[in-house]
């Protein structure tokens, strides 16, 4: 395992070093889904496996992809049993199937779960082993089988990010396979595919986008490039998320949220996620709660903890949200945290106390501490700190 880049980084602030590249060719636009066959042809692929989930299949989007690809003479196979909080066992099964079929290109269609699963399957096809063999940073030996990612929700950012979050079903732990070579080769971001997403899923996935923006903004691996993208992602969420939830047919809002997902995904691909995802993935791995819901809950929790070291970032965030300046920077930064809490309330995101068993506080704290991305949080946290963070939020919402 390589050392986490947040630990090995030299320099501070504007002088801190850093390396990033964003290799995904992202196509954004209404109707770009119809270019899928052309994109596949560009790879010279003859056998393609579509990785998706039953919900996306039910919407008819997978059928549309199959029709498009078969009309272009491509042999298409399906692996559509991906579940939310995608499982290692399904990635292994998908990779075995793809290996038997001599698949040379993967097409992920869906939200974060199918896209992350396709990335993991691509890793297993060329690197072998179990997903946990490739956990953490820069561990791959071989270039994965390429993935074309078709995003059907607005929030995951996985369509352009270098990580795949896969649940280890034995350890009940979320693993992060993080390597620039995991980035999809192509992302098709077609806002029209998001029109049929139900309001509650729109809300949760939209908060996932915001959590990427904010985790990138306060991340220890922040750069001016990622800050610019993160702040724009947050601005777009503030402008469009409520609108997309209230009226799913609002074209401008759906486009705005698809752009928010994309730009926040790029931001977090430059940096890493941070403490919000440490908290969110601890809850998700324990109770199988949707990722976006856990991120929405985790955001104000970690922002309050990080406030002493991230105040300036949250002042800039408040401006991105369109909030007026407070009496001083502390008040302005606190208004950004209050804004996130209000957004959760208006989107009917559950409270922490609705989801967790108070007897599990130590377990949740241990899982959050063990998360790969805890090293990226701007304020160091040990198990007792995480326990306090959970306990404080539980007391607030019980
Ligand atoms: Fe996320």
Concise account of the structure shown:
The chain is an alpha/beta fold. It has 15 helices and nine strands. It has two domains: 25-194, 3-Layer(aba) Sandwich (Rossmann fold); 198-397, Up-down Bundle (Dehydroquinate synthase-like, alpha domain), CATH 1.20.1090.
Query: What gross morphology would you assign?
Result: globular
In angstroms, what separates the terminal alpha carbons?
40 Å
So how many helices?
15
State the order of secondary-structure elements, H for helix, E for strand. HEHEHHEHEHEEEEEHHHHHHHHH
The CATH architecture of the largest domain: Up-down Bundle
The CATH class of the largest domain, by name, is: Mainly Alpha
Largest sheet: spatial strand order: 1-9-6-4-2-3
Amount of helix: 40-55%
- Tell me about the biggest sheet? 6 strands, parallel
Ligand set = fe (ii) ion
Unreliable spans: none
Per the CATH scheme, the topology name of the largest domain is: Dehydroquinate synthase-like, alpha domain
Query: Which structural category fits the helices and strands?
Result: alpha/beta
What's the count of strands? 9
Strand content: 5-15%
Radius of gyration: 20 Å
> What number of structural domains do the residues give?
2
- CATH homologous superfamily of the largest domain, by name? Dehydroquinate synthase-like - alpha domain
